[in-house]
Amino acid sequence: MTRPVHIVLVYQSLLGIYGDRGNATVLTKRLQWRGIENTLTVAEPGDPLPDDADLYLLGGGEDGAQTTAVRLLTEEGTLHRAAERGSVVFGVCAGYQILGTTFTVGEMDRVMPGLGLLDVSTRRGTTRAVGEVLTRLRPLPGDVSPLAGDDALVTGFENHGGFTTLGADALPLADVEIGIGNGDATRTEGAIQGSVIGTYPHGPVLARNPALADFLLETALGHRLDPLPRPEIDKLRQERIGTIRRSSRG
Ligand code: GLN
User: Fold this and answer.
1) For binding substrate, which residues are annotated in this chain's numbering (predicted)?
2) Rounded to whole angstroms, what are the CA distances from 143 to 24, 147, 216, 223, 235?
3) Which CATH number goes with the domain that contains 118?
């Protein structure tokens, strides 16, 4: 019997403008379909984040909101304790950037400190990355049977001006086939360091890519979960992958 899972959605009023709260819905649904009890806490600025959760989710947002979120999360320290004990901290776009060491905001590119949970830093890129992105997940640390073939493909919608460089302690999450991703010379996307994971695609990304959702759940629980065959989701994924590849050929 798998123990109950506690998920925390962090600061929707700051990091909630791209619909990434759908990632929480996907995780709770996938647990429910497997008969695993779960609780979802939506924590807003001013609320203490629960200290006992298995997964913390951060979404996309604007520069000002990123700065406020870092200040509040640094003051209260829950995410740092969570990362230390191996709970999953998953950030999308602005949420990804603030998990890093530094990021820039505003027209003057002011350098702001991040939470320092991922060894990545973000600076304004040469262009704004806007559009569909297609990446291939790398074999992830500790994964004994990594995803292969089309199962390892991730689709989503990216919309960011910041480009992210990985330091020595962070590993790329995926390689970019179409789109910009981190915007680095090696064409990688996202980063992972222990149980802290960041990625650019919205969608919500876990709705489009259930295998990534299960990877997060399995990392949080420390064991494998039974697969959930959903032919209709596989069909939708194939359609999206085909559309992105066709449209990128112009
Ligand atoms: N403000 C950040 C950027 O433009 C993040 C945007 C987002 O979360 N989509 O890089």
Assistant:
1) 128
2) 23, 9, 12, 10, 25
3) 3.40.50.880
Distance CA(239)–CA(113), nearest Å, equals 40
Query: Do the beta carbons of residue 24 and residue 12 sit within 8 Å?
Result: no
Structural domain of 150: 5-249
Amino acid letter for position 121? S
Q: Is 198 in the pocket of ligand 1 (CB under 6 A)?
A: no
Q: Read off the pLDDT of residues 224-247 as tens digits, 9 standing for 90 and up.
A: 999 999 899 999 999 999 999 999
Contact 102, 111 (CB under 8 A): yes
β-strand 5-10 against 38-43: which pairing, if any?
parallel
Q: Which tens digit of pLDDT belongs to each residue from 70-80?
A: 999 999 999 99
Cα gap 86→222, rounded to integer Å: 10
Q: What are phi and psi of 59, to 5 degrees?
A: -115, -170
Q: Is 61 in the pocket of ligand 1 (CB under 6 A)?
A: yes
Q: Ligand 1 atom closest to Cα of 59?
A: 8
For residue 128, say whether it is annotated as part of any ligand binding site: yes
Are residues 94 and 62 in contact, defined by beta-carbon separation less than 8 angstroms?
A: yes
- Within 13 Å and on the Cβ side, how many CA atoms surround 8? 21
Question: Is the alpha carbon torsion for 67, 72, 76, 81 positive or negative?
Answer: negative
Closest to 153 in 3D by CA, of 166, 136, 165: 136
Total count of domains within the chain:
1
Q: What is the set of active-site residues?
A: 93, 202
- Please state the pTM of the whole predicted model: 0.97
Q: What spacing in Å lies between the alpha carbon of 47 and ligand 1's midpoint?
A: 24
Span from the CA of 225 to the centroid of ligand 1 (angstroms) = 33
